[in-house]
Task: structure prediction
Amino acid sequence: MLESLTKSYGKAGTAVVDGINLEIENGEFVVLLGPSGCGKTTTLRMIAGLEKITSGSIKFGDKVMNDIPGDRRNVGMVFQNYALYPHMSVFENLAFGLRSRGTTKVEAAIRVDEVLEMLELSAMKRRKPRELSGGQRQRVALGRALVGRPSVFLMDEPLSNLDANLREQMRIEIGKLHHSLGITTIYVTHDQGEALTLADRIVVMHNGTIKQVAKPREIYNSPADSFVAKFIGSPGMNLTEVELRTDGDRIRGGEAISLPREAARVVGSHLNKKVLLGIRPELLSLVGDENDAKIVGEIQLVEQMGSQLQTYFKIEGPSSSQNFIAKLPPDSTPRIGEKIALFARPSDLRFFDALSGNALDRLLDIDEVKAESLVG
Ligand SMILES: Nc1ncnc2c1ncn2[C@@H]1O[C@H](COP(=O)(O)OP(=O)(O)OP(=O)(O)O)[C@@H](O)[C@H]1O
Ligand SMILES: [Mg+2]
Result:
């Protein structure tokens, strides 16, 4: 558990980790996700005891760890650059830490063999790191952290040195490993694909603070603010500032956006106010009807992505034009310069405060709205 955990460098330095609070369950896989420089590594290093904390506290269970040296915290750490001893064999790399903590030679050998077996590295046991592939080296680094039977597993971008295929393979292995061993894991990455697939919960960080802690699905569906909305998803959520007003049987936001009158309940108290309207690129469609939100824009660029066409289009906002992205089916034929209408379900729209960017109250599901209006 992290309580008001803070780190600043220098005397009057600004906090690079700024009073974060986080409770982690036993056996949970938590991913710290955020852009470069947001404080992920610093947070992990404080938990590992490699970095002195400026204020706040770190607890494992009920035990305050603040002043417990790193080598007595029983954490296993895996770094981005493996940091294997080049002159030692795979076996020695794994045994070294155990031996230096006083494990007998026989016991160390048994435990190392066990871990090598588990990671399918037994055949590589006598090799030096330079005689291994990147993926094998990364497995040795995992093994070295595992062999000490840590109660907490800390990983800092462990896959970022691997090529795309290997990264995916290792990601699956890490997922399986966690599934079988159930060790509490804190995993740092700026790759949201890794975060969304591995995490029980994702912690989105920005500028030394936590923006949202939630299950991957919730982070994706209900981002806590416009930063998280933009950061999650590839590409992130489309956002535009609008002021929605009732106009006949529609609700309009400038020239480009219109919603059915029925969506009034979805829009709720955000009517006649400046808000940020958000919609995910994958939830925009070329087909729709009068029950859908309609967004009109001019196509600027079409990128062939294999399974879809990533289509960039310009919509007219209240003050200036805005760029939106839609993922369209590969057999559609959007043409540059063409003006098209895109549709979205009103329940897929998200609203954020125009100033703070904070998500505005959770939307009612449109089906629920319809049912209610039938009754009422
Ligand atoms: N020893 C140090 N002295 C001063 N500032 C530091 C030091 N170490 C890190 N920082 C600053 O702290 C901030 C957070 O760094 P940190 O390494 O935790 O970021 P990160 O989220 O891990 O980024 P990345 O994704 O690039 O690894 C950065 O602005 C960095 O410049
Ligand atoms: Mg880092």
Remarks:
- The pocket of magnesium ion (ligand 2) is lined by residues 40-41 (CB under 6 Å).
- Confidence is low (pLDDT under 50) at residues 363-376.
- The domain at 2-226 is CATH 3.40.50.300 (Rossmann fold).
- The chain has two domains: 2-226, 236-375.
